[in-house]
Amino acid sequence: MENRFLKVKNFLLELEYNIVSEEKENELLIVEKENSGIKNLVIDCEGDILILELALFENSNPKPEMYKHFLMMNREIIHGAIALDSKGDKVFFRDTLQLENLDMNELEGTLNSLELFLSENANDIINYSKN
Questions:
Q1: Residue 121 vs residues 1, 4, 70, 93, 126: alpha-carbon distances, Å
Q2: Nearest alpha carbon to residue 121 among 52, 45, 54, 21
Q3: What is the pLDDT, as a whole number, of residue 65?
Q4: CA 7 to each of CA 14, 32, 79, 105, 107: distance values in angstroms, whole numbers, following the listed order
Q5: How far apart, in whole angstroms, are the C-alpha atoms of residue 79 and residue 96?
Q6: Please, which pLDDT band fits residue 128 given cuts at 50, 70 and 90?
Q7: Residue 83: exposure state from Cβ atoms within 10 A (0-12, 13-18, ≥19)
Q8: Percent of the chain surpassing pLDDT 70
Q9: Is the predicted pLDDT of residue 44 greater than 70, yes or no?
Q10: What is the DSSP letter of 87?
Q11: Which tens digit of pLDDT belongs to each residue from 68-116?
Q12: Contact at 8 Å (CB) between 79 and 113?
């Protein structure tokens, strides 16, 4: 399994992501690429699945229109989706990829999708995070 972890790590380095934290034993990385708006992106090699998760904001005062808006946004996201944690307290961007045949283009597609989502929806994310 470590081979897959190293492969993902090397892809991220080649894509010019900074590795902020690394837990080899848990096959977990936290990365950033601040000029793309990505900070504290959690990348977890979990069995045969690669999980990418970025916390967007705390959901302290949920409103039905926010949920509707994010469901509509999900339709526009190329890779990944907006999700809530199990308690509904936090809003995340999340994507999962198969590790077995993962190539750099596939990982780059997810990361580009996240960058595009953040750039196109920054004002909405900021506004919802204030409520």
A1: 36, 32, 10, 12, 9
A2: 54
A3: 85
A4: 11, 18, 20, 13, 11
A5: 9
A6: confident
A7: middle
A8: 98
A9: yes
A10: T
A11: 888 998 998 999 999 998 888 899 999 999 999 999 999 999 999 999 9
A12: yes
Q: Which residue has the tokens 């936090």?
A: 90
Q: Is 0.85 surpassed by the pTM of this model?
A: yes
| Beta strands per DSSP E along the chain | 18-23, 28-33, 38-46, 49-58, 81-84, 90-98
Which pair of structure tokens corresponds to residue 22?
Answer: 């690394």
Q: Whole-angstrom distance between the N-terminal and C-terminal Cα of the chain?
A: 42
What CATH architecture does domain 2-130 belong to? 2-Layer Sandwich (3.30)
Amino acid found at 99: L
* Res 2: pLDDT: 57
Angle between helices 104-130 and 64-76 (to 10 degrees): 160
Q: Can you read off the two tokens belonging to residue 40? A: 């504290």
Cα–Cα separations (whole angstroms), residue 62 to 43, 48, 75, 115, 127:
27, 34, 20, 25, 12
Instruction: Give residue 61's pLDDT band: very low, low, confident or very high (50, 70, 90).
Output: confident
